[in-house]
Design brief:
Layout lengths: L11 H17 L3 H9 L3 E4 L8 E4 L5 E13 L7 E7 L2 E3 L1 E5 L5 E2 L7 E13 L8 E9 L4 E9 L22 H19 L10 E5 L2 E3 L23 E5 H11 L3 H13 L11 H10 L3 H12 L5 H6 L15 H16 L5 H12 L8 H15 L1
Antiparallel strand pairs: 1-3, 2-3, 3-8, 4-5, 4-9, 6-7, 6-8, 9-10, 11-12, 11-13
Helix pairs in contact: 3-4, 3-5, 4-6, 6-7, 6-9, 7-10, 9-11
């Protein structure tokens, strides 16, 4: 009987099996740790799917085409010595590519992989191909070779298709020369200028065109995103108590023109603003400025009611079944958030100018947010905070 195994030899197949196990244990046990250690020290490579890029078809000067595939990888060196990945290949179709590894200084090149560490590797392949390619994913088999000749194979790595360029829906443009009334032309010109401001300081940049907040001596370009301080728990933080106001160069220019003309011309300015509340016109993207001016002239309710009527999408039964939506149109980045930015403006209005709002303004805002499917930011909370502040102030 083997002292180490504790197994008793028997007769027949069972006894033979016990004898084989004893033999293997006696003669191979010394080598098992080395074998396991050697396999465990081999490098591993994993694709970083989030950073890999779609395949791309590039036409050459001679009329031929090259299929470009770029992938990002994470290379882990499990050994106690540095390794070098010297070659990257795709096996179907066969092609050798170019690889670079990120070094400790942040640059990329043919850097070695330090022991017991993980680094980024980028591979780039240019594969001759035909022009016709279906707009679908492609799968490739990769082989990586290190300086010792060890090969790492990665099977069926996906290269996603390039994104199709989506055709945007053009909105109706208005020529200033076609507008006879000088007040209406001024309204259109300022709205057009606000569109330019929005491209520089819009939703993508966290701003709202020319509209900004002034809190004491500080300027804040982002008026609709909220933040709270954990050090003031239980205190009123969603509205600003003290010296704060909203300003807008373009909005205040329209307000100055409105205040500088007679009653009939004032009515034409208001009507010009209301007429340009439309999803199909270029001014849709700066509807927030219309809300700003209408609030300043005491007609916020009329503006919000018009926007609800023209902007709020009311799907029919067929629309619900087919999942159709008016906002499924593909618009330019400066036009995509016209309706939503109105809610963002109201959120900032309540935050920085709640003391200037009349009771009718607060009711109009509450009605506006109660019947919408859009995100209303923190408007409801701010309405409650503004009301509570007024009650506390008597």
């Amino acid at each position: 009987m083997s002292e180490s195994s504790g197994r008793e030899p028997g007769k027949g197949l069972g006894g033979a099996a016990v004898a084989v196990l004893d033999f293997l244990e006696k003669h191979l046990s010394a080598f098992v740790p080395d074998i396991v250690k050697r396999w465990a020290s081999k490098p591993t490579i994993v694709e970083d799917v989030r950073r890999s890029r779609p395949w791309h078809l590039a036409k050459q000067a001679d009329g031929r085409y090259l299929l470009q595939i770029d992938h990002e990888w994470l290379v882990t060196n499990n050994s106690d010595a540095a390794i070098l990945i010297i070659r990257a290949e795709v096996n179907r179709p066969e092609a050798q590519g170019f690889l670079v590894i990120e070094g400790p200084d942040g640059f990329v090149g043919d850097y070695p992989v330090p022991p017991k560490s993980t680094v980024r590797m980028t591979t780039h392949f240019m594969i001759p191909t035909t022009r016709r390619h279906w707009h679908t994913s492609k799968w490739f088999n990769f082989t990586f070779t290190d300086h010792t000749g060890y090969k790492i194979r990665k099977q069926r790595i996906e290269a996603k298709p390039p994104r199709r360029a989506r055709k945007t829906t053009p909105l109706e443009m208005e020529a200033l020369l076609s507008i006879a009334d000088e007040d209406e032309r001024a309204v259109a010109a300022i709205l057009k200028d606000e569109l330019t401001r929005y491209t520089q300081n819009g939703r993508q940049q966290g701003g709202l065109g020319s509209v900004r907040a002034q809190v004491a001596n500080q300027r804040r370009d982002n008026i609709y995103q909220d933040s709270w301080s954990s050090g003031r728990r239980g205190e009123q933080q969603d509205i600003v108590i003290g010296d704060s106001r909203l300003v807008s160069e373009n909005g205040d220019a329209l307000l100055a023109r409105y205040n500088g003309v007679s009653g009939d011309r004032q009515a034409r300015i208001v009507q010009a603003l209301l007429d340009r509340i439309s999803r199909d016109r270029e001014y849709y993207g700066v509807s927030y400025l219309t809300a700003y001016v209408m609030w300043r002239v005491g007609k916020l309710r009329e503006a919000l009611e018009t926007m609800t009527k023209r902007y709020e999408y009311r799907p029919s039964i067929v629309d619900r079944v087919l999942r159709r939506s008016y906002v499924n149109r593909v618009l330019e980045k400066t036009q995509q958030f016209g309706y939503s930015d109105v809610f963002g403006f109201l959120n900032g209005l309540l935050r920085f100018e709640h003391a200037s709002l009349s009771e009718d303004d607060l009711k109009a805002i509450e009605r506006f947010v109660s019947g919408t499917s859009e995100s209303t930011f923190q408007i409801r909370q701010k309405l409650a905070s503004a009301t509570a502040h007024r009650v506390a102030a008597g």
